[in-house]
Amino acid sequence: MPVGDHAAARARKTNLTTYRVAVLCGLVIGLSLALVGEEQGARAQPAMLVDSLDAVLGDPRLDGITVAVTVRSAETGELVYDRQGDLRLPPASNEKLITSAAALADLGPEFRFRTTVLASAPPRNGVLAGELYVRGGGDPSLDADRMDELAAAVAAAGVSDVDGAVVADDSLFDTVRLGTDWSWQDETFAYAAPISALSLAPDPDLNTGSVQVDVLPGATPGAPAQVGLTPPTRAVQLDNHILTGSPDATRSLSGEREHGTNRIVLRGTIPLRARPAHPLFSVQDPALYAADVFSMALARHGVHVHDPALRRSPTPESAVELAHTDSRPLAQVLFPLLKLSNNPMAEMLVKTMGARDAGVGSWSAGLGVAARVLSAEGVDPRRVQLIDGSGLSTSNLIAPDDLTMFLVDVQREPWFALWYAALPIAGVPDRAVGGTLADRMAGTPAAGNVHAKTGTLATTSALSGYVTTQSGERLVFSVLESGFVGDPPHAVEDQLAIILAS
User: Fold this and answer.
1) Is 254 a catalytic residue?
2) Same domain membership, residue 344 and residue 474
3) Were 113 and a residue from 199, 231, 286, 327 both cysteine, which residue would form a disulfide, CB within 3.0 to 4.6 Å?
4) Is the pTM value of this prediction over 0.90?
5) Distance CA 60, CA 286 (A)
């Protein structure tokens, strides 16, 4: 522009235009100097950031550990920092970022899971001549209270006697209960519960497919501890070897569900007058467990089931609906999934997507849906290996480069705001908000700022999500680590996030 103006001025040969050219030249020089200064400042800032992040990643605690890190601008996707970002590693529970987003994209935020009670034939004079079916709809939030509501509805429909048995229908999903490469050592624990379309959660955290064992000290030292189950069920047996210790004894409790059974063996000591313990254990057959809890609820509401044996079978097409219960919207169900990193919930979402889209409630069908969502969010699914929905399998693989691009692109989705709010928030002590980050990064610039998903396996740790800098710029980041021995390097992950927030 100045050159053109100068040529025109020379053609017109006017003093006024010559003056204008001089002013423009001065402006150009001033602007050039300003731009040089800004460019040098812009270069200095990333250089300082790179140096700071490099220093953290030089921590001796990371010796021998494979670490991959990517940081991007959340607005443009531009790379801000990279350390082996194209290296594929197990994401652990960072896998739930993909699963939850896929569920919102495929099922929708308002999707509700339905559990239905049906009869072989309509009741006559209060009697059901045949079986009473409980058909699971893949609801990961179903609990004993809602089972009780179903039983009350059956009684309110005029049913007082069931000639047959209570039958569990979990046919929406396939019969593969455990994921590929899940460790047999995890089988006892609630976080690795078998997956069924009809399942029950015993606690407010919705650890579906598990039962809560309640342990209280006995009356005197040396006496057996008092034990019970929440919810009460005949489907699980307790073998109690826990003794009451002296008031100053050390609490030492352990338990294991015997392989292939619902028999839980308990051992250890609980001090006299100590507060109760409430460990969770997975159940071998979630569908029959849920059906038993429902059967006991029927008895409380005056409905007599003549055949006490629990069975499993698909519901006949001719069956008559008596009652149903719907879950909260998926948007609300996601909070315990992401905030508390609920594994069985993630797997049930995967199989629900498969059942809805492919007519097969399997991992392969559901993960096919997740792969399509990845592709829609700018990630080549051929670069990612999805084995399950929770990240419990060590064969899941993704690179921080791809995970951060996913985090960038997912921001354009209409449901992003609620998904973002469902992520754990660093340093917020309320578990319903802070989740698995409630006690991390407190009192730092990252507290109340970082929204991210944690992930931990035996030798793998991860942290991926969003952070806003002090200048107001939002960044996305992903830190994946593999091969550590002992405690996971959470402090290093936290320091990286704190630097980005600063």
Assistant:
1) no
2) yes
3) 327
4) no
5) 45
